[in-house]
């Protein structure tokens, strides 16, 4: 049963006293009635519905092979966190401009990334290159995700993911993540106390979702653990493995900052199907628009950020337009789609890309 159904059932008796409608009829009520139910819901009623939802989830989890002892140790501790829903609706990637968001690529974050490469560069390069990934991108992802492991990750993961699974916006997605989180504990990969996350339910320094941990986390140092909770070889190897799994191409970079011709913000964006075909990893991001060879973008008046000609290398690229009126754009290559697999936000992927260049001292 979906979360919305539990909410209606829990509120049914209350609404029936107002509308004179039997509780069992609420599932078939008109949208206006459903809206009224949402408006008059009290926290106590919603908490009761949440607990009923958890009980139903327990039955499903048992059927998926999660041990009863694991479920009974964790489920009674789970509390709905309504503020998580508020944050979910107001993510920085949604509400900030490109200029504001990309201020994350600041001197301090660049310096920390460069110092990370000084202190642990040999280990990072070995783990990354073994998977065909440039080390600077691994460092940049860690810089954007957790400020290189220094940002405190303190939210109780089961509270966060259960709340998001109960919420209607991405219920199926987070129900699967909740099952994966229980599997991590049930198989002994982590204790419940270790399962701390961000508000979005992502684990550890590299901010892996639970299903990504199960599928892509690696034991880089060979100690029998896949430890993403402290910065070290497992974190580095796991991020590199994530990018490899997303189809990373080691003979390319992410793309480049470009300048646009007059009126380019309006004239250059075209639908994806007007360009050259792309693989599935890029086709899923239809709002990237058309993919064209660099020579075609050159003919359309796009130039490097300094106004000089684009490279002559035969690479296909898509154009991202920045904030309206700044005449700035970004030509992105296939690897940009791999970064989007980590977080499907153009702003986030540009932040990783620009930070990776800055860590390595790349200015073109």
Account of the protein in words:
The chain is α+β, with helices and mostly antiparallel strands and 364 residues long. It has a domain at 255-332. It contains 18 helices and 7 strands. A 5-stranded antiparallel β-sheet has the order 4-6-7-3-5. It is globular, with a radius of gyration of 24 Å. 38% of the residues are buried.
Arithmetic mean of pLDDT: 87
Continuous helix count: 18
Classify the secondary structure makeup into a structural class: alpha+beta
Number of strands: 7
Describe the global form. Answer: globular
Helix content class: 40-55%
**What is the element string, with H for helices and E for strands?**
HHHHHHHHHEHHEHHEHHEHEEEHH
Low-pLDDT segments, ≥5 res: 4-40
How does the SSE layout of this entry go?
Elements: H1 3-19, H2 31-40, H3 43-63, H4 68-74, H5 82-88, H6 92-95, H7 98-101, H8 107-129, H9 135-146, E1 155-156, H10 157-166, H11 171-186, E2 196-197, H12 210-216, H13 233-245, E3 255-259, H14 264-267, H15 280-283, E4 291-293, H16 294-299, E5 303-304, E6 316-321, E7 328-332, H17 334-342, H18 346-359
Antiparallel strand pairs: 1-2, 3-5, 3-7, 4-6, 6-7
């Amino acid at each position: 049963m979906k979360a919305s159904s539990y909410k209606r059932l829990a509120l049914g008796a209350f609404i029936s006293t107002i509308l004179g409608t039997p509780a069992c009829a609420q599932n078939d009520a008109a949208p206006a009635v459903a809206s009224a139910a949402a408006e008059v819901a009290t926290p106590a009623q919603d908490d009761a519905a949440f607990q009923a939802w958890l009980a139903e989830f327990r039955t499903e989890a048992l059927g998926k092979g999660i041990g009863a002892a694991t479920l009974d140790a964790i489920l009674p501790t789970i509390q709905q966190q309504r503020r998580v829903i508020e944050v979910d609706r107001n993510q920085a990637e949604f509400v900030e401009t490109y200029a504001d968001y990309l201020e994350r690529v600041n001197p301090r974050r660049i310096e920390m990334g460069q110092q990370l490469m000084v202190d642990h560069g040999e280990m990072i390069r070995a783990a990354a290159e073994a998977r065909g990934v440039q080390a600077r991108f691994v460092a940049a992802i860690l810089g954007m995700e957790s400020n290189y492991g220094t940002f405190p990750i303190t939210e109780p993961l089961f509270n966060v993911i259960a709340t998001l699974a109960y919420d209607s916006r991405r219920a199926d997605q987070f129900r699967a993540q909740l099952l994966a989180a229980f599997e991590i504990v049930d198989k002994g990969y982590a204790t419940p106390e270790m399962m701390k996350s961000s508000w979005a339910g992502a684990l550890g320094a590299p901010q892996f979702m639970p299903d990504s941990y199960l599928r892509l986390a690696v034991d880089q140092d060979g100690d029998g653990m896949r430890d993403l909770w402290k910065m070290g070889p497992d974190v580095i190897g796991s991020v590199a493995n994530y990018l490899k799994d997303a189809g990373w191409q080691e003979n390319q970079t992410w793309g480049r900052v470009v300048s646009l011709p007059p009126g380019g913000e309006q004239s250059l964006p075209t639908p994806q199907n007007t360009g050259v075909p792309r693989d599935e990893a890029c086709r899923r991001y239809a709002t990237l628009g058309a993919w064209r060879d660099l020579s075609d973008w050159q003919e359309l008046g796009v130039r490097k950020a300094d106004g000089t000609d684009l490279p002559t290398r035969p690479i296909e690229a898509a154009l991202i337009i920045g904030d309206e009126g700044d005449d700035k754009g970004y030509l992105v290559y296939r690897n940009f789609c791999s970064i989007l697999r980590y977080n499907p936000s153009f702003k986030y992927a540009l932040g990783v890309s620009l930070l990776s260049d800055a860590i390595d001292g790349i200015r073109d």
